[in-house]
Write a structure and sequence with these properties.
globular; 163 residues; mainly alpha; 72% helix
Length: 163
């Protein structure tokens, strides 16, 4: 695990409480492990990680998001979402493949919704030319995919009524 991922994982565990873990586990339905860190702690941890690791480029950001997502822990995955939200400006149309995988594995709309509205939508809005055309084709495919969450994400990202 990279230094940045270790920092995020360790900090989230240290910021957790059993009360928050129990509440989140019940709310999320048990599909993901839960540390019990607050959303504010997750956001602060990502902010601190980016301050510690100032020179992360596109490849570093996407690799870190994948590292955080790898373990089925809600707070780690939320940290990956926050990282992508924060660094959406460095993302490119080909990153939709990684995001598609995240959506398919999310296990909760609490992760799908911010990926669609705060990562995919702003990414689509700033793409132009061939990159925009390719991204639009990806979202068209998502909108007819058998995966309900992927269809939901496509609808949110494009502003179409949610299925």
């Amino acid at each position: 695990m990279s230094d940045a991922a270790e920092f995020v994982d360790y900090t989230l565990q240290m910021e957790s409480t059993w009360e928050k873990a129990a509440e989140a586990s019940e709310r999320l339905g048990g599909g993901l492990k839960v540390y019990g860190a607050s959303v504010g702690a997750v956001r602060g941890t990502v902010r601190d990680a980016l301050k510690r690791h100032k020179n992360l480029d596109h490849d570093d950001i996407t690799a870190l998001s994948s590292e955080l997502w790898e373990e089925p822990v809600y707070e780690r995955r939320l940290a990956a979402v926050v990282l992508l939200q924060t660094k959406v400006g460095v993302l490119v149309n080909t990153d939709l493949t990684r995001i598609e995988g995240f959506i398919r594995q999310a296990g909760t709309r609490e992760l799908v919704d911010p990926l669609a509205t705060d990562v995919v939508r702003p990414l689509l809005e700033r793409l132009e030319g061939r990159a925009k055309e390719r991204a639009d084709r990806v979202l068209e495919r998502w909108s007819t995919d058998p995966d309900t969450e992927l269809r939901h994400a496509a609808a949110l990202a494009t502003g179409v009524a949610t299925p």
